[in-house]
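Example 3.2
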Amino acid sequence: MVERISVKYIENTNADGDDVAGVIVSVFEKEILVGVTEKHGGDAEVSLNIKMANELLGAIKDAIELANSK
Protein backbone atom coordinates (compact mmCIF):
# COMPACT_ATOMS: atom_id res chain seq x y z
CA MET A 1 0.00 0.00 0.00
CA VAL A 2 1.36 3.39 -1.02
CA GLU A 3 0.74 6.17 1.47
CA ARG A 4 1.43 9.83 1.81
CA ILE A 5 3.67 10.63 4.77
CA SER A 6 3.48 14.11 6.31
CA VAL A 7 6.87 15.42 7.36
CA LYS A 8 6.25 18.95 8.67
CA TYR A 9 3.51 21.59 8.84
CA ILE A 10 4.41 25.20 9.62
CA GLU A 11 1.71 27.80 10.20
CA ASN A 12 2.01 31.57 10.27
CA THR A 13 0.25 34.50 8.61
CA ASN A 14 0.04 35.15 4.90
CA ALA A 15 2.15 37.86 3.25
CA ASP A 16 -0.56 40.48 3.85
CA GLY A 17 -0.76 39.52 7.51
CA ASP A 18 -4.55 39.31 7.40
CA ASP A 19 -5.06 35.56 7.33
CA VAL A 20 -3.61 32.30 8.64
CA ALA A 21 -1.48 30.41 6.13
CA GLY A 22 0.70 27.36 6.27
CA VAL A 23 3.09 25.16 4.36
CA ILE A 24 3.14 21.38 4.50
CA VAL A 25 5.89 19.07 3.30
CA SER A 26 5.16 15.42 2.67
CA VAL A 27 6.40 12.42 0.71
CA PHE A 28 4.42 10.28 -1.70
CA GLU A 29 6.35 7.44 -3.26
CA LYS A 30 9.56 9.14 -4.53
CA GLU A 31 8.06 12.61 -4.84
CA ILE A 32 8.36 15.47 -2.36
CA LEU A 33 5.06 17.34 -2.05
CA VAL A 34 5.07 20.98 -0.96
CA GLY A 35 1.69 22.50 -0.27
CA VAL A 36 0.64 25.99 0.68
CA THR A 37 -2.71 26.71 2.24
CA GLU A 38 -4.52 29.85 3.34
CA LYS A 39 -7.35 29.53 5.84
CA HIS A 40 -9.82 31.65 3.86
CA GLY A 41 -8.16 31.37 0.46
CA GLY A 42 -7.22 28.17 -1.20
CA ASP A 43 -4.62 25.50 -1.53
CA ALA A 44 -1.80 24.84 -3.94
CA GLU A 45 0.54 21.88 -4.09
CA VAL A 46 3.59 21.06 -6.17
CA SER A 47 5.16 17.65 -6.66
CA LEU A 48 8.95 17.69 -6.91
CA ASN A 49 11.39 14.94 -7.78
CA ILE A 50 14.52 14.73 -5.63
CA LYS A 51 16.59 16.94 -7.97
CA MET A 52 13.95 19.69 -7.98
CA ALA A 53 13.53 19.42 -4.20
CA ASN A 54 17.29 19.98 -3.81
CA GLU A 55 17.02 23.05 -6.06
CA LEU A 56 14.22 24.39 -3.85
CA LEU A 57 16.29 23.70 -0.74
CA GLY A 58 19.19 25.68 -2.25
CA ALA A 59 16.87 28.58 -3.09
CA ILE A 60 15.50 28.61 0.47
CA LYS A 61 19.05 28.62 1.89
CA ASP A 62 19.94 31.54 -0.40
CA ALA A 63 16.80 33.41 0.69
CA ILE A 64 17.68 32.85 4.37
CA GLU A 65 21.17 34.25 3.81
CA LEU A 66 19.72 37.26 1.98
CA ALA A 67 17.15 37.90 4.73
CA ASN A 68 19.84 37.64 7.42
CA SER A 69 22.00 40.19 5.62
CA LYS A 70 19.28 42.88 5.69
